[in-house]
Design goal:
Elements: H1 2-43, H2 49-94
């Protein structure tokens, strides 16, 4: 009867040892895969979320400034073209017709 228990105990010890070995192998594989992934990601040229948000805010500010500058240019062009267009119309009426 003790021999059966001893055989069973030895089998349980062996299975426990194998389970511990497989668990260690799994941890090692996970650690290795995590390290390889970090190396791969580090080699790639990715930006962080905070850098992305900063550049996004800069682009939005540049678009806003661009719209303001477009409006200023349009106003200046209208100011410059307005009197010139009025002068051309007035000057056109004062000129003598050719051949008259």
């Amino acid at each position: 009867m003790q021999s059966e228990n001893k055989l069973f105990d030895d089998f349980v010890k062996m299975v426990n040892g194998m389970a511990g070995t497989f668990a260690g192998m799994g941890r090692e594989a996970e650690s290795s895969a995590r390290e390889k992934f970090k190396e791969w990601m580090g080699g790639a040229d990715f930006v962080g979320r905070d850098e992305f948000e900063a550049v996004k805010a800069m682009a939005a500010a540049a678009r806003d400034e661009n719209e303001i500058l477009k409006a200023r240019i349009a106003a200046l062009e209208a100011k410059v073209a307005g009197p010139a267009a009025g002068t051309a119309k007035r000057g056109g009426g004062k000129k003598a017709a050719p051949g008259a």
